Amino acid sequence: MPYPDHHRPDTSSARPAKARKQIAVALQYELDGPTLPRVVASGQGRMAEKILEMAFASGVKVREDADLAELLSVVQLDSEIPTEALVAVAEILAYIYRANGKLPPLGGHYVQGERP
Question: Quick check: 42 and 24 in contact, CB under 8 A?
Fold first, then answer.
């Protein structure tokens, strides 16, 4: 049985939270490359929808993270990501590369015959 939430603030008279405008940011990164990931596309609203449509149509993995997208959306195009975003972006890239078989699974070792 769930516990009642007696500490939830009364929002009946509060203004509704302002909805975030959709933001999409595309990154480019070369595994083992000499540079950090770069912002290669960024947009809000209809432009964000176009970026997402192109990504899905091209089979590019998409990750939804509104806070990270907002941080990266202010980066100039063709610029490296800021250091504040390194950890979050590295985790996403590691997940994607593992899912695509370009990095060993967590634990660091491929099983014989498993390596792409």
Answer: yes
Domain coverage including residue 62? 23-28+35-99
User: pLDDT tens digits, the chain, 116 residues: what are they?
Assistant: 433 444 444 444 555 556 678 999 999 998 888 899 999 999 999 999 999 999 999 988 888 999 999 999 999 999 999 999 999 999 988 888 888 777 766 665 554 454 44
Kindly state whether residue 115 falls inside one of the protein's structural domains: no
Give the strands of the sheet with 23-28, arranged side by side.
Answer: 23-28, 38-44, 79-80
Q: Which residues contact 62 (CB under 8 A, 6 or more apart)?
A: 52, 55, 56
